Amino acid sequence: MDLSNEKAVGALSKHRASPNSESGTVSSSPDLLSSLQDVNIHTKAHVLDAEEVVRQLKADAKRGLSEADACERLELFGKNELEQEPGKSLLQLILEQFQDLLVRILLSAAVVSFILALFEGGADEGVTAFIEPLVILIILILNAAVGVWQESNAEKALEALKELQPAQGRVLRGGVWRLLPSANLVPGDIIDVRCGDKVPADCRVLALKSTTLRVEQSQLTGESVTVNKV
């Protein structure tokens, strides 16, 4: 989403990756990391006070996270990016089209119809005896072709959506604003979003240095104009 305002500062409250999606256990600061695992504000951060969100995330709105703390959280929660799933081969896409129960029933009907036509004088009548099973098979082939085409378009759309993710974000670490890859953002990070920026992650607004806040969210809702948030 593109942000259309002067400047906004927010605390990262939700992560694209699930806990422990990148690596296993974390050896240091077990009490802190254990408490972070129990934090469940992902669905209610927008209704909590900004100070409460910062408190629950064990963050510091003035100095941000330390590098050591950020590294530990990165190990715990994984990278802030959409999970990469291996694409399906053409053969897998074709086979999936025949897993539907109705398709299997039609395929069975075509086989039975072909066998009956073969034993009921199909050799004498020629191709006309096999018209019914052939029509069913043609319909199933066309259905599979359309299904494969739709699945391929859906995968291409997902890949295009991943390319729209912002590559970098301004993050407060140890009292210093830094430009870091968006994938390295962790819950509790304090980020700075300015006019025209893409929001690098789900976050709670802590301070708004503008009279209005408009967001261009057509990628999510299809709306053609920016939406007023404040």
Automatic annotation (TrEMBL):
Residues 1-29 are annotated as: Disordered. It holds the Pfam family E1-E2_ATPase. It is a multi-pass membrane protein. The chain crosses the membrane at residues 101-119, 131-149. GO terms for molecular function: ATP binding. Coiled coil: none annotated. The keyword Membrane applies. It is found in: Endomembrane system. Residues 44-118 form the Cation-transporting P-type ATPase N-terminal domain. Keywords: ATP-binding, Magnesium, Membrane, Nucleotide-binding, Phosphoprotein, Translocase, Transmembrane, Transmembrane helix. SMART domains: Cation_ATPase_N. GO terms for cellular component: endomembrane system. InterPro entries: ATPase_P-typ_cation-transptr_N, ATPase_P-typ_TM_dom_sf, ATPase_P-typ_transduc_dom_A_sf, ATPase_P-type_domA. The keyword Cell wall biogenesis/degradation does not apply. This is Sarco/endoplasmic reticulum ca2+-ATPase. The lineage of its organism: Eukaryota, Sar, Alveolata, Apicomplexa, Conoidasida.
